[in-house]
Amino acid sequence: MLDLPRPDTPQATLARLSDVQARMESLAREATALRAHLLRLSDAAPVRPEPPE
């Protein structure tokens, strides 16, 4: 993880925790949106026929 200095006070620790939680939620939303986008792309992609053997 990041090598950040430890917060000096409990309030600073809680503030950092809040920032980290907000970032995690943002990344989760981005991942969900990307997953949905990729699924839409795969649904819209033409299906290639199997090559003859």
The general outline is rod-shaped
Number of strands: 0
Broad structural category: mainly alpha
Report, as a whole number of angstroms, the end-to-end distance. 51 Å
The ordered H/E elements are H
Mean pLDDT across every amino acid position: 88
Helix fraction bin: 55-70%
- Provide the low-confidence segments as ranges: none
Q: What's the Cα radius of gyration?
A: 21 Å
Question: Could you give a quick summary of the protein structure above?
Answer:
With 53 residues, the protein is mainly α. Helices cover 66% and strands 0% of the residues.
Write up this protein:
The chain is an all-alpha fold and 53 residues long. The protein is 66% helix and 0% strand. It has one helix at residues 10-44. The longest helix is centred in the middle third of the chain and has 35 residues, at 10-44. The N and C termini lie far apart (51 Å).
Write the layout of secondary structure elements.
Blueprint: H1 10-44
Keywords, separated by commas or semicolons:
single chain; 53 residues; mainly alpha; 0% strand
